[in-house]
Amino acid sequence: MEQRIVRVLRHRVGKNERAAKPYDWYNAAVYALRDDVIDAWIASTTRTHEAKEKRVYYLSLEFLIGRLLRDAMSNLGITGEMAEALEKHGLDLAAIEELEPDAALGNGGLGRLAACFMESLASLDIPAYGYGIRYVNGMFRQRIDEGWQVELPETWLAHGNPWEFERPESAYPIGFGGEVVTEGETSTWLPNEVIEATAVDTPVVGWRGKRVNTLRLWTANALDPIRLDAFNAGDYFGAMENQLRADTLVRVLYPADSSPAGQELRLRQEFFFSSASIQDIVRRHAQYHGDVRTLPDRAAIQLNDTHPSVAVAELMRLLIDVHGLTFAEAWDVTKRTVSYTNHTLLPEALESWPQPLFERMLPRHMQLIYAINAVVLKEARAAGLSPEAIASISLIDEHGERRVRMANLAFAGSHSVNGVAALHTELMKETVFSDLHALYPERINNKTNGVTPRRWLQQCNPRLTGLIREAIGDDFLDDAEKLEALNSHADDAAFGERIDAVKRENKVDLAAHIDELMGIRLDPDALFDVQVKRIHEYKRQLLNLIETVALYDQIRSHPERDWVPRVKIFGGKAASSYHNAKLIIKLANDIARRVNTDPAVGDLLKVVFVPNYNVSLAERIIPAADLSEQISTAGMEASGTGNMKFALNGALTIGTLDGANIEILERVGADNMFIFGLTAEEVAAKRADGYDPRSVIEGSRELAQAVHSIASGVFSPDDPARFAGLMDGLMTSDWFMLAADFDAYAAAQRAVDRRWSDRAAWRSSAIRNIANVGWFSSDRTIAEYARDIWKVM
Ligand SMILES: *Cc1c(COP(=O)(O)O)cnc(C)c1O
């Protein structure tokens, strides 16, 4: 390995050892390792090809993959070899790993799920492609300026990217606009704008190098990047306009995943990557298997949320207009090939597009959607559904301005529609999809999310992994459910102390990182209480902050009590157009400024907002957490995956009966979690009854005092009215039921304090968390998709 590194340093990077900068060594390390990856990659592809295996295609607008070096080394089992090789040149592998930029091609849980799934697909030896967009700037980088979020472009490609392979031979024309010409039975779409999509491939290495799959991200180019006539006439900008329009498509990920996008660019992005991916899939099938009618035998296409829904119409167009199938044949092939995963029930997040925009941008697809709709509505009438049910099933929303409903299109065009946790799936049947479910009762099924234990245990927490191996052997490395063997050590005092020591070392590391980053000193013996995730009102960071203020008041009023020292750690990005979420970030920082400098509380309470939460930061924070905050309003978090990562690393959860928390509770047990608050049913009932938050707030002394102090500017003396509106929203509507859950939450926090003070009890609970969440491995999730939906296992 050492010789290889020196060789590639010279011949690829173009430097000798003396001239090489740390980043050159990083590149050399990746190139050296890459040879092994490529060999396994080619072997995997050849094997799939020769056996004519069915492939899985995972279409996702987001892949939050994070760094790849550690993942690839670990899965190939060469981390030690690499560390030794670098050490011979006086280099520390951990420091080299830090040089890799985070590939932040996603927003939050949905994108991270896609990344965990890609890793598990390779680990389970399932031939698969991930398809997405190669965003040049990805998700924005977050800076905190005077407590406010500032969005900066993420420049993850600034130094090039040694992991990717451009495939200029895999390029497809993507049309927009124009018209449809119909002659007899055949229709042809003549777009008035064409952009070329070119594949850029990244290898995804499975556990023990079993298989290497492909993440294929599309980049965009103009067919004529420069118009020389315009250029020569002095119109330099006009001459480049086409390339600029292409570049715009692959610049940034539109970061709002839960507010109406309403923007043409987003629809263009969705069609761009869906069309390129579908063309690639159909081309591969036609080339190797001939008849496109056998597509469902060789390909399973999974739509990750509705962003790629237009793929249903694009597949229909290719089958009918290019391959000559009848509409009925094409519809049958499409439904048997495609399946769809729903990720949210928030009505504002259910994508729909103004029909005139859709028609102008994709006239042929609009025709096909009307034709599909006719079939679906005919089936609905034949099933005897009511006019209201038929209207809600329609792919076209006729209320007010006509809109195309992407979730209905995805549902209609799929043989399987899955939710991502048991509660979420039941709510899908009862709420947004109740009428579609009545029409197609076999279609909805549940696939509870999971996370890859390689990244989220082995790689991010080597100390804990080592300790578990000593205790129960190596079986759990290949099957996370084998962690159950740890249950027999849950009450072993000596083992508990070692678990504690590992946690403390991880906390020391995190504290050092935070000190370096922000100049805040944290006490590693305090309870590290963590809420890191996108900032959204339904996730209720505000509930946590208000309770923090209440605790602060209590500590100041009763300094004589035996308080448990706490560090409150927050992190997460707010969508750039989401005003309240940004204000919540400011509030966290304003509270931190006041609390952290108040000598009356000293080390009893510290508040930290860590900027730019991303995968790499998650990998540092989660192993160091004692308490995991999963406190969404019940019924609103589809699953959550952060909850799984924390429990796997021995944090105890304080949480509501929402998403996968419920299933974690079933496995970990109520004695080892802090569950509080309204159920989803109770939330719905309260909303229906006319809930009055003001009276609830006035009825709770601690809550009233905290809300009033925030509203009156105690934490924002420079602008006393800054949070008045936010607090007024709580008083008057409180859609997310903070007030209703506050007392239960505060009581649960005091129960946390009591358990923490009983060290043996806390350690035992931590061990039982680790032992019983192996089921939340994405290997289990993917095995279920493979068996029930894709039929590849
Ligand atoms: C796991 C993960 C998420 C999802 O967290 P939730 O708590 O489930 O919302 C978001 N961002 C990053 C970087 C993650 O690793």
Automatic annotation (TrEMBL):
The keyword Cytoplasm applies. It is found in: Cytoplasm. It is an enzyme of class 2 (transferase). GO terms for cellular component: cytoplasm. Coiled coil: none annotated. Its EC number is 2.4.1.1. GO terms for molecular function: glycogen phosphorylase activity; pyridoxal phosphate binding. It comes from the Bacteria. GO terms for biological process: glycogen catabolic process. InterPro entries: Glycg_phsphrylas (IPR011833), Glyco_trans_35 (IPR000811), Pyridoxal_P_attach_site (IPR035090). Allosteric enzyme that catalyzes the rate-limiting step in glycogen catabolism, the phosphorolytic cleavage of glycogen to produce glucose-1-phosphate, and plays a central role in maintaining cellular and organismal glucose homeostasis. Belongs to the glycogen phosphorylase family. This is Alpha-1,4 glucan phosphorylase. It comes from Tsuneonella dongtanensis. The gene is malP.
